[in-house]
Design a protein that fits this description.
This protein is mainly α and about 35 residues long. It has one helix spanning about 1-35. Keywords: Membrane, Transmembrane, Transmembrane helix.
Length: about 35
């Protein structure tokens, strides 16, 4: 149970970083297209 909890936290961190990465790419793309 403790090990599974650690794995869940690790997966959540990876997913959050991945979503932030995509979000940042979209913002940079939008700024480049806007200028």
């Amino acid at each position: 149970r403790c090990n599974n909890s650690v794995i869940n936290i690790y997966n959540n961190i990876i997913i959050n970083i991945f979503l932030l990465y995509i979000f940042n790419l979209n913002i940079l793309n939008y700024i480049n297209n806007y200028e």
